[in-house]
């Protein structure tokens, strides 16, 4: 009995440390900085459109600077939503943080972040806030320089609107002419060729999942792509299946973003896809960041 009592404080201490680590990793929020929300009033544009000439339907948006057309496809028993985006300037593609704050475990729904930042179209980003490492560059500001792994593939949105793929272990992030850097991956298509194989997957994710990707056809011409999954209506896609689907659009670069329950597309304040974590209910997961098209 005395021996058991002797070990009890050590056991309680270890348990307390384990609980704190779990809370610090997944629950406790830490704000490292705040940013100004995007709005029509604070964006600097070369030639701001006359909003009276804007044409909007359920699946299209058209003005002098931004063209968005959303189409729905079926592939491998999965529903996929493709937003074809053409811009007059890279100013209209930007990132936004949950609660307009950079930090850890700070989350909000994609639709909420989109509304807070005047987004016409938004998809989930790389969920940087759930990790302690991996490059983070948003709207030209470098927030995190720690390397996730030497082979980690990141997507760079360059200031000329072109996309490029880098590996963190061989890149000096301060040398990049980058507006955005997303650290999730992997790259799905590089130089027009599929860059994943049938065995590639994100961590321990299932082979069939909801997916999100951002693609470049050419500078200022992009695809925002989200697939459903985990339901009887849509089984979801493997990374290789996702890449195969994207080849029909002749994209130069395609990059896999956070998927599963995070995969969400919002257009003019409305959910486009059917986001789900468990497959039992359709609802948005709160995430740390989104990629937007808007003013």
Characterize this entry briefly:
This protein has 295 residues and is mainly beta. The protein has helices at 2-26, 110-116, 239-246; strands at residues 30-34, 55-56, 60-62, 66-75, 78-87, 93-97, 101-104, 119-124, 136-138, 141-144, 153-158, 163-167, 178-182, 187-190, 193-194, 211-218, 221-227, 253-256, 265-267, 270-271, 289-294.
Helix content: 10-25%
Parts with pLDDT < 50 across at least 5 consecutive residues = 16-23, 42-50
**CA radius of gyration:** 20 Å
User: Ends: how far apart?
Assistant: 69 Å
Apparent shape: globular
Count of separate DSSP helical elements: 3
Strand content: 35-45%
Structural class, judged by helices and strands? mainly beta
The biggest beta sheet, please? 9 strands, antiparallel
| Record field, number of beta strands | 21
Overall pLDDT: 89
Order of helices and strands: HEEEEEEEHEEEEEEEEEEHEEEE
Spatially, the strands of the biggest sheet line up as 2-3-4-5-17-16-18-14-15
Task: Walk me through what this model shows.
With about 300 residues, this protein is mainly beta. About 15% of the residues lie in helices and about 35% in strands. A nine-stranded antiparallel sheet has the order 2-3-4-5-17-16-18-14-15, with helices on one face. It has a five-stranded antiparallel sheet with strand order 6-21-8-19-20, covered by helices on one side. A hairpin with a 3-residue loop joins strand 2 and strand 3. The longest helix is centred in the N-terminal third of the chain and has 25 residues. About 5% of the residues have low confidence.
